[in-house]
Amino acid sequence: ATQMTQSPSSLSASVGDRVTITCRASQAIRNDLAWFQQKPGKAPQLLISTASNLQGGVPSRFSGSGSGTDFTLTISSLQPEDIATYYCLQDYYYPWTFGQGTKVEIK
Amino acid sequence: EVRLVESGGALVQRGGSLRLSCAASGFTFSDYWMSWVRQAPGKGPEWLANIKPDGTEKYYVDSVKGRFTISRDNAKNSLYLQMNVLRAEDTAVYYCARNYCPGGICYRPFEFWGQGVLVTVSS
User: Fold this and answer.
1) What SS3 class is residue A30?
2) How close B106 gets to chain A, by Cα (Å)?
3) Contact B51/B71 with Cβ under 8 angstroms?
4) Between residues 50 and 79 of chain A, which touch chain B (CB distance below 8 Å)?
5) Does the beta-carbon distance from A43 to B95 stay under 8 Å?
6) Which of A16, A46, B40, B58: disulfide with B92, CB 3.0–4.6 Å?
7) What is the pLDDT of residue A98?
8) β-strands B11-13, B117-122 pairing
């Protein structure tokens, strides 16, 4: 199975900070990488698909980049409502696999 | 409005069986690949299975292959997960999710999710 390694596993940042989360695939997955946000007690929500396509209704401070094995989710200016756990997902190979998650907190 | 509503979660004994259902509305169900995803307490999500719009192709993660079966009834706008030989490690919230995969290429995996249903396997 394709392993997805996310880093960091958690981070603490101030409101307004630029936040970057990375995801590395154990083999090349083209740009078949999605990012999800999950808040406690809720289902994950798709933020970005095919590495860089922002879903409708998602604030423009979120962006994604990368292809092949290395991918990045960036929050350009962290807001209190961004407190959540973020997961990457590769859907190029079966089984589809998630990263282990990055918990984002406010400093 | 797209709606996915899971049902069938329960407390079940190890070795037992359970069938989850997912009722879909607000879209043409027969046009979409569908998935089951689970999340164990305090853990990240885990993809379990996908099914093609017409039901002719199914894919599973190894940990459930041979024990779980994904199926659908397009006439009833419903997705199912038959779970057999349940283990303690199957304890999780189970979600159904819709994928946007025109021509089999997935551009938006898990674009919509249900609210989830809890399955607890007791030992």
Assistant:
1) coil
2) 7
3) yes
4) 50, 53, 55
5) yes
6) B40
7) 98
8) parallel
